[in-house]
Amino acid sequence: MIVGGGGIERSAQEYESHYMLSDMKFVNSLSSELLEHTVTEYGDSSTSLSVSDNTTKLGKTYRSYETVVLTKSYGKWNIANLHWSTAK
Length: 88
Hints:
Elements: E1 2-4, E2 7-9, H1 12-18, H2 20-28, E3 31-42, E4 45-55, E5 61-73, E6 76-87
Antiparallel strand pairs: 1-2, 3-4, 4-5, 5-6
C-alpha cells in the first residue's frame, strides 16, 4: 500500500501505473545531502532513520525524513514499512 498525495495506491502495479515514473523523475532531479542516519537492530527487526536536505534544480531546499522498518526472514532483510515526510 502506497499512501501519498492525498490518495492510496493499493498495489505496486497501481502505483506504477499512476505516479511512479513522475516520482522517479522528481527524485532524480534532486541534489541530496544526508545529514543524519541511524540504524538500530532488535533481533529480527530493525529501524533506519534518516534526515536529508534535498535541493531542486531551481535552488529550493526541502528537509526530508525517512523511517524504514525492516524484518529478517530466512536470513534476508525485507521492508515492512517505509515512510517519508518533507518539511519546507
